[in-house]
Amino acid sequence: MSAVEQGTRQARDAQHDALDSGRLRSLSRRAFLGTGGALVVAFSLLARGQETLGQGTKQEKAEPQNRGEVPKNGPPLPGSLEQDPMLDSWIRIDANGAITVFTGKAELGQGVKTALIQIAAEELIVDPARITLITADTGQTPNEGYTAGSQSMQHSGTAILNAAAQVRGILMSLAAQRFSAPVNVLTVQNGVVQGPAGRTATYASLVAGVDLHVRASAQSPLTDPSSRRVMGTAMHRVDIPGKVTGGESYVQDMRLPGMVHARVVRPPSYGARLQGLDAQSVERMPGVVKIVRDGNFLAVVAEQEYQAISAARALARVSRWQERATLPAPADLHASMQRLPSKDKVILGQTWNTLEGSDVVRATYRRPYQMHGSIGPSCAVALAKDEGVTVWTHSQGVYPLRGAIAELLHLPPDRVRCIHVEGSGCYGHNAADDAGADAALIATRLPGRPVRVQWMREDEHAWEPYGSAMIANAQGRVGADGRIAEWRYEVWSHSHSTRPGPAGNLVAGWHVETPFEQPEPSPLPLPAGGGDRNALPTYKLGNASVLYHFVPSMPVRVSALRALGGYMNVFSVESFMDELALVAHVDPVEFRLRHLEDRRAIDVVRTAAEKFNWSGWQRAPGRGRGFAYARYKTLAAYAAIAMDVEVERASGDVRVRNVVVAVDSGETVNPDGIRNQMEGGVLQSLSWTLFEQVSFDDTRIRSRDWSTYPILRFPDVPERVDVHVINRLGAPFLGTGEAAQGPTAAALANAIADATGVRVRDIPLDRERLRGALGLLARAG
Amino acid sequence: MIRLQVNGQARDVDVDGATPLLYVLRDHLRLNGPKFGCGLGQCGACTVLLGREPVFSCITPVSVVAGRAVRTVEGLGTSDNPGPMQRAFIEEQAAQCGYCIAGMMMRAQGLLEQNPSPSSMQVRQYMSANLCRCGTHMRILRAIDRAGALMRETGTKGKTT
Amino acid sequence: MRTRTKSRIVGVLGVLVALIAAFIALAWRSAIDPVRPPGSFDRQLVERGAQLEAIGDCNTCHTAPGGRSYAGGRGIRTPFGTVYSTNITPDYATGLGSWSEQAFVRAMREGVDREGRHLYPVFPYDHFNLARDEDLHALYAFLMTRDPVSASAPGNDLMFPLGFRPLLAGWKLVFLHRRQFQEQASQSAEWNRGAYLAEGIGHCGACHTPRNALGAVRRDKPFAGGQAEGWDAPALDASSTAPLSWTRERLIAYLQNVVFPGQGIPAGPMLPVAHNLAIVPDADVKAIATYIASVAGAPFEARERRAADVLARVKRDEESPPSASPPAAQPLDGDDRDSAAAGAQIYAASCALCHGAGRGIGSGNAMHLAQSTSISLPSPTNLIHIIEDGVRPRPGERGRWMPAFRGSFTDAQLGNLLTYLRGEFGPSAPWHDVQRDVRKVRHEGNHE
Q: Which CATH number goes with the domain that contains C341?
């Protein structure tokens, strides 16, 4: 079985991961001592909780196999060691001294591979080049659930840091015995233990005498953080050379002997049913091996890839589907969401009420459905053999996916193996799991032959789960002292998480002859939240109350998209802050400072303003500037963004000029990593905010490709993006990858309002909307 | 049988002439550089150089490239011996997921071979055919800048294949 | 010297002097004093001006690629060389910021700038002179309220001796006449409105009407087809070769870049026109469509029959789509037959994905090519542009997308594709010497 080596750093998470790697020692103490890291602990436990939604629970409890009993007494083990306490689950050294490190996390492009290698190399005291890292594989790695939410370093990094230290300790103990010397006079240099009188012993020579199949202990002989060799350095990503020279890097690059190519013919809309199929002409096409039909699931398999594509097109032409109008009217999208049954909860304040009075400022903000739009459509390879199935997939959660596929195929979970291989950036729950399920399903119809399923662009666009549409009402009143006296915020949203989990969350699961029903989603708990993420502003407000309307029904498929509800809630809250500042006749930066008490928030706001030269900025016709601040998830990184734009009134064109970001992610381990993530987040958020909305009619998704769902291209890129990182030595690491999404959107809206005098509250702030708001060329008649 | 010139080598493929070049390069010649992103000529992940021009290999039938010089990222250098474009992207760490990068590099290579000192606006206009979803644009622009400088310095345009 | 010779010399000199004096009298135009125009105008007037500007496409010519709107600097190729558009923002030093309304009106109607210099008729004052006073007033208000930009256009690059502007006075003497719009009582109010806009500020004929050797519009052949920026502006009159007639409804959609079954989308120089018309009040677009639809004249049998054939073919293909292999081209002679077969293969891989009939759902909903106007034109020039450059919406906007195939095909391969397309989807008369047009478009730099 090939484990395709990969390790790329996705702007989103690399910094957090790298940060965590340097902080794990104090984290492992602090996290479990319930002090400053308490939220972090709660967070990781919550993350576990999320993973046990639905079917996944049973599978997880069946895991880990052969992992040894976890005693219920005694202190908890650091990170994921708690679930997988055997040291050799994480670190193995063979007789040649080759070192293999295992992680249950997946490389999504966030650089976790590189970071984990750095951690292991640090604590094993070896050259990073000696380490082979095996990522998420239900056949050989620990089960660490989903790789999501910037938690890889907390879970996996902590485990590996401690496991590596303990392995080194075991080897050193044996060396001490052999040298008849106390352990504390030994040193290690690049995998060689050095003792008195020049005696040395390589790991290779020691490993035969130790048993690493032992339980980890709660304490680890960690190295001194002040003498870091590998962690804390801007080590170049190990995967980039391969990617720029055409190395095999992605699941799309896999070529197994005897592999066949499959394409799924998806229905034209949700809820469409296959009425008739005259497949004879397709069966006769060159290279066609098989047509698979299972209820509404339809696929064709061919020897060569283009043969499969041609056959799928022909198959689509000869299929007849009966469709139903199940989608909301686009013009009525948000109003119809508000009419659906919802679970309502006051998440701040005692009760909810509406403000009355002529001095109340009111605003309604809207966000449409938006998509991940991964540049490489989802892909998977599966092989059915000996009554089992192996699936190579870029899913974020191989263990949960395994459970879902087992359920789909009516197999016991231990007959299914899911191996993570990198795909293109996913930014959350995209169609990766669905491609894996498709491949597994088709593979069972062609046992013995590897089946490669590649989703087409149109299918990825139409069938991936989107980021939920949302609508928020804000009301506020500014007191005579120029401070916010009253604050009301209510927000409606669909679910931000429908991961498999259960087979009912797989597209294939909906389409097979005996379909699986999609389970009703539950709201994600605070403080992280889902649709209510960042609905609780971190400002000191007067009388504040926040109401969340969770709408369980999902006429349009939705799940987790980077920042979840945090993108839209920060857009709304930070736009509203500016609207209140305007009423109070106070500068937007000054207004925010008046309501902040957290020193780190104040610092990040001041830094962004200074570096942008907020007080010295020169006004010019058509130009405006905007500011926004948020603390992601109210407990992760602090980010403040200032930008200026130029708006052409006649066309509604917005040119972004300078963007200045100030970010505080706790202790900085790799400043370049933070900058990369924040730049990437800024640009992606500019794209979302300026251009993006999924279009559909009452039956079909109409956004099927980049022409019907345009995104940012090079000519729209800002002139400059500068990221300033505030380094807090000694502070815990804070997840940063999603911190730019919300503040970018609000800073942009605020800058446009400043440039034009007109406030636009509906995302996307596209040309047509701006022209409409500016009123210069409104359509008449 | 169709005879192709790919990265300086003659390669024969037995495939229907209407097959898009992308699948021939990936599946028959087992090259990883050009990627499937949309198959519609909208995203540029499949970009290769045909002669001096960057083209979308996903909508170019293999029959029209017979005998013409096709270059992919594999032809710009190796991981042991990267060419100037590749060095620039490594030095700038200009990648996040990296899926779009090979296509970006080929289009940029085409630009720099025809215009060794493009203005910033020219680069942005020229590269508009290629999409990046991760938001790596600023680094890609810096890498192209750097590649141009490296090429001008050394007087090379990278490997000539 | 003998007296008779002397008097002859004096006579000739006198005539010369008189001619020069007459020429100067003709060509010399006074400068109008610079003013500081008012900074604000009535909002409704400005809005009306904005609508008229969109109909007149001022921003299209007066904006350089990637440049600031209305700041000029765009090079417009003509058979006589390249003329660069001027800055019409209200910048005092480099734009119109010193122009009084009188100076503006004079420029629009007579082609003379504030300082008295003659303007080249690539600026279509020969059409703008139909505009009414109140419309020019609104346009002035609109332009004066734009954001000023400091920018000067590059010098023109014209063949000798056309750089000598006073020569234009002679041109104007012959080809520029005072005009006033005359309503036609027998036509509807909508038709008249459309005629006024299309013939005047809309200057449709500036591209769609042929020009004589001196570059003047041939008023005897209105809308018989012309050229613009390396593209053919198709004939809109009875000589139109479009497979389906441009009815009012089809034009309304086309002119606003709205997708309409069975027709293509604006491309090349028409694309910015459509972008502008998309933001103009519906009533004005409908009026223009009404007028232009009437230009084609009454339907006649041959055209009706061709349209019916085309629609029947499209319907046939949609209902029972061709098989996966490339469709057989119509029988052709000798070389053309091989050429078409090669072109068929290109079509199958590069075009059929979107243009093929009966394709599944997805983005590939491009028009069936039997309905293509560019394949039906007398020359493949426009089709070559479209294949080379593709068609794109404005950045960030949704719209039809055709990729640019520049670089994919050699001249010969492109020729094969063109031959196939004409044979398969076009009228029965083949194109002659396709390679000449390919070379002209590709290698003489006539495309953007």
A: 1.10.760.10
